[in-house]
Amino acid sequence: ATFTEKQEALVKESWELMKQNIQELSLHFFTTILEIAPAAKGMFSFLRDSEEVPQNNPKLKAHAVKVFKMTCESAIQLREKGEVVVQESTLSYLGAVHVKSGVIDPHFEVVKEALMRTIKGAVGEKWSEEMGCAWGEAYDQLAAAIKAEMKQAA
Ligand code: HEM
């Protein structure tokens, strides 16, 4: 399946909108991850030792931004090249970090679901099925690249 200009635009426009409120977005994203999979708490250094999801944690924000931003970049690449290519050094780092943190493949579905719910909540009436599919496709391809690298790193 080809990734269309329309799909790319849907992802880019919604990200432009969402990143204006990155603090709240990050918090909502992680709160949702823990709603879906409470046990994931133990994997994240910034969640492990606190009762609640911290309001102003730079590491939490960094992870949320990475997931959103890299998915958005993947959407652009999918439209331009028909595939997602992550820079080799970035990819090997991502593989290593996630293996070391105890991340396994099914966790990527949890994060995908949290990503979708967060986008839906953030864009409000701009949400469409088509927008969700575009984000989902871009995320799946990025996740596949990271998972493949994790197998190398394991
Ligand atoms: C760390 C990106 C999916 C759990 C990181 C880091 C990046 C990243 C860039 C390093 C952060 C840093 O060094 O500051 C991504 C991307 C993902 C993804 C782009 C998907 C497209 C996941 C999933 C999980 C996960 C599915 C598990 C639920 C973690 C954990 C760390 C980490 C536990 C270590 C963070 C810490 O404790 O400080 N990720 N990640 N990630 N990631 Fe992910």
Features:
single chain; 154 residues; mainly alpha; 0% strand; binds protoporphyrin IX containing FE
SSE arrangement:
Elements: H1 5-18, H2 22-36, H3 45-48, H4 58-81, H5 88-100, H6 107-123, H7 129-153
Bound molecules: protoporphyrin IX containing FE.
Protoporphyrin IX containing FE (HEM) binds next to helix 3, helix 4, helix 5, helix 6 and helix 7.
Question: pLDDT average, as an integer?
Answer: 95
Largest sheet descriptor: none
How widely separated are the two ends? 31 Å
Bound small molecules, deduplicated: protoporphyrin IX containing FE
Structural class: mainly alpha
CA radius of gyration: 15 Å
What does this entry look like structurally?
The protein is mainly α. It is 73% helix and 0% strand. Helix 2 crosses helix 6 (107-123) and helix 6 (107-123) runs antiparallel to helix 7. The longest helix is centred in the last third of the chain and has 25 residues, at 129-153. The protein starts with a helix and ends with a helix. The model has no long low-confidence stretch (mean pLDDT 95). Protoporphyrin IX containing FE binds at residues 40, 43-46, 59, 62-63, 66-67, 70, 94, 97-98, 101, 103, 107-108, 110-111, 142-143, 146.
